[in-house]
Amino acid sequence: MATIFYSLAGEGRGHATRVRTIVELLRSEHRFVIFAPGDAFDMLAPLYADSDVRVIRIPGLHFEYAANRSVSPWRTALGALAYVAKLPELIARLERAINRERPDLVLTDFEPSLPRAAVRRGVPFVSLDHQHFLVTSDLSYLPKTLQWRAAGLGKIVELYYQGQAATVVSSFCFPGLRPAIGRTVEVGPLLRPQVLDARAEHGAHLVVYLRKFGSERLIDALAATGREVRAYGLGAQPSRGKIHFFAIDERRFIEDLATSYALVTTAGNQLLGEALYLQKPVLALPEPNNAEQLLHGHLLANELTGEWLEFDRVSASALRRFLARVDFYRSHIVCERMNGNPAALAALRRHLPPQTQPLQRELHASIR
User: Fold this and answer.
1) Same domain (yes/no): 185, 134
2) Which among 150, 185, 183 has a CA at the least distance from the CA of 171?
3) How far apart are CA 267 and CA 288, in angstroms?
């Protein structure tokens, strides 16, 4: 049994969902210690309370939002500078943890401190995230302005850490690797058991997921479609006609998504991948000033599995145009490509001590 240290970014739920998937697939074979900031700690700590998986809170980077609820680049940058100032202290703390527990492998989902500590202590680490698509993917088919933005974001990604034994990129789309990119594996989204077990049906209702904020313009446009809407992310509140608002509940959300007609959501990679696995075309609404989500919108449209709109361009007519094309988008979804679990496991096993009796149950669970 190996000891694995695993760190992750704390913004949103996508990083935590990927980490949870890997932990659940391997925890019967290996011991995990998770280092999680922000939203990720809040999601994972209750799930693993009183279990053999330890979850430890650490500081992390996160987006800051302006008064209009769009991402504020300047406030985010100032927060990043404050984090960087305290980074040496955090790395030293993690080095002490490595010295005490001597992990066999370090995994990271876009978190910069633990990989640095691992390098200093001579422990190999593997990067398993989505953000490295900005470094490894061939995006030459995108408009030039987007290529430039992706290149700029890629430079930021490279600053997070270097020296990994391998890079595993989990994504809802497959643009292909840039020339001369080595030690990189492209896999589909990492799917939690609840998604793998869900039975996809094509119902009439829409599911909406909005992280951090919504808009009255969007609510009015959804109401004008005449469809039932099940909205998550804005908290439980009284219904408005056919629009029903629910608190985040994993079981209910996945059931509603699996039986929906389509998904309207901000453009996070993890949820896009889960929706496509469940054969749900997506109308993506990238968060204002979130360049990564803007890229996701273009990549989604390029795959012909959905489309995207700016938040201030949402209208009833735009929603109706999307809904009229749902069957077309669904016909382009290749569900089998949306399960990255087997490929991700195979990539990780190359860096773990061999097991004398591989667990067939876990492999079966990854391909259901």
Assistant:
1) yes
2) 185
3) 11
Helix 250-258, helix 269-277: angle, nearest 10: 50
SS3 for 111-169 is: CCHHHHHHHHHCCCEEEEECCCHHHHECCCCCCHHHHHHHHHHHHHHHHHCCCCCEEEE
Pair 260, 279: CB distance under 8 Å: no
Q: Are residues 52 and 148 in the same domain?
A: yes
Question: How many folded domains does the chain comprise?
Answer: 2
CB 34 within 8 A of CB 55: yes
Residues 182 and 48 in one domain: yes
Among 161-170, 213-222, 296-305, the range scoring the smallest mean pLDDT is: 213-222
| Cross-strand partners of 231 | 208, 245
Alpha helices by DSSP H, listed for the chain, are: 14-26, 38-47, 73-101, 113-121, 133-136, 144-160, 193-197, 216-224, 250-258, 269-277, 291-302, 316-324, 326-330, 341-349, 360-366
What is the residue range of 259's domain? 194-337
Q: Which pLDDT tens digit goes with each residue over 35-44?
A: 999 999 999 9
Average pLDDT over residues 97-124: 97
pLDDT at residue 311, rounded to an integer = 85
Do residue 331 and residue 351 come from a single domain?
A: no
**Residue 178, pLDDT score:** 85
316 shares a domain with 187: no
Which tokens in the block code for residue 228? 């039932």
pTM of the prediction? 0.88
The pLDDT tens digits for 187-197 are 999 999 999 99
Residues paired with 358 in a beta bridge: none
pLDDT tens for each residue of 221-247: 999 999 999 999 989 999 999 999 999
